[in-house]
Amino acid sequence: MSKEFKPKIISFLCKWCTYSGADLAGTNRMKYPASILPVRVMCSSRVNPVFMVKSFLHGADGVFVGGCHPGDCHYQSGNYFTRRRFAILTRIFDTLGMESERLKLSWISAAEGVKFVRVTTEFTEEIKSMGENPAKKKVFL
């Protein structure tokens, strides 16, 4: 009997936008995958890239970062920092031969519960198609 692969996706969600979008999806009784493990942060710029790497190396099959749309950040320019850091981190992942496709950044506002469901469902399906995170077997920290 084979066991169905259920990915574990650590999701860092901006309190003001994406987390509220997830909350809206929940209050509207929309279903999003249980594989999404939300971590509420004050701003997507507060997500240190080390948190993402540690999540990945400690067994997360994917890491999702959600923030406000560019120009709509509660702290004015936080999501611009996030976008730059994310670009650098994906380049580092590619350089090290790690699967940067397991990282995802998306801008979802508080009014976009439907988009939150769609993005998280698509990302979960992508991770399922890739299988388990190979780094968790290789790295022992």
Largest sheet: 4 strands, parallel
Count of helical regions:
5
Order of SSEs: EHEHEHEHH
Main sheet: which strands, in order across?
2-1-3-4
Separation, N- and C-terminal Cα atoms: 31 Å
Any idea what the shape is? Answer: globular
Task: Report the helical percentage.
Answer: 40-55%
List keywords for this structure.
141 residues, four-stranded parallel sheet, 4 strands, single chain, alpha/beta
Q: Can you walk me through this structure?
A:
The protein has about 140 residues and is of the alpha/beta class. It has five helices and four strands. A four-stranded parallel β-sheet has the order 2-1-3-4, sandwiched between helices. It is globular, with a radius of gyration of 15 Å. It starts with 8 loop residues before the first strand and ends with a helix. The mean pLDDT is about 90.
Give a summary of the structure in a few sentences.
The chain is α/β, with parallel strands linked by helices. It is built from 5 helices and 4 strands, in the order E-H-E-H-E-H-E-H-H. The chain has helices spanning 18-27, 49-57, 78-95, 113-130, 135-138, and strands at 9-14, 36-41, 62-67, 103-107.
Give the helices and strands, then pairings.
Blueprint: E1 9-14, H1 18-27, E2 36-41, H2 49-57, E3 62-67, H3 78-95, E4 103-107, H4 113-130, H5 135-138
Parallel strand pairs: 1-2, 1-3, 3-4
